[in-house]
Input
Amino acid sequence: MRRAVCPGSFDPITNGHLDIIERASKLYDVVHVAVAINRSKQGMFTVEERIQLIEETTAKYGNIEVEAHTGLLVDFCRDRGIPAIIKGLRAVSDFDYELQMAQMNHGLSGVETLFVPTSPTYSFLSSSLVKEVASYGGDVSHLLPELVNRRLVERIAERKAQADAQADAQGA
Ligand code: ADP
Output
């Protein structure tokens, strides 16, 4: 079985992520999606929610396994017999850091990193930009799977209602 991993935060999964995962799914028998757990950073979605959104939006590819991971990605790879990490490269600005990371991971464990050039449609797209634009009421529905867009709009409304209630309580 040829295996590869697509790592990231996926907070939430975007059409840019899906593009890379779909292309990887055609090249490998099994594609693992590793969702990084970052305790120091509070996300828009919990890790469990991110995993659920990824599972639902990638089910159609038929060979995707989604899991959370902490610690070193190379340990995740070793434990599952994964020889390759797939990363999307959006622009030259991604390259510096990704090259360092790829060389470090190769030096640590021999795992290879393969870069897939992002589709030009998504080269400006990141989860953080989508969240920012959506939080100001911008329409990002063309950049996200429909389900993810719906959940994001709901989550932003919940957060806003909480913030308003807090502000009211403090003002009272
Ligand atoms: P990170 O926390 O590593 O920035 P992200 O979830 O934002 O995690 O992205 C994970 C990986 O998904 C990136 O390293 C990149 O390889 C790929 N990726 C993210 N956005 C895009 C995009 N718009 N097009 C193609 N690949 C992308």
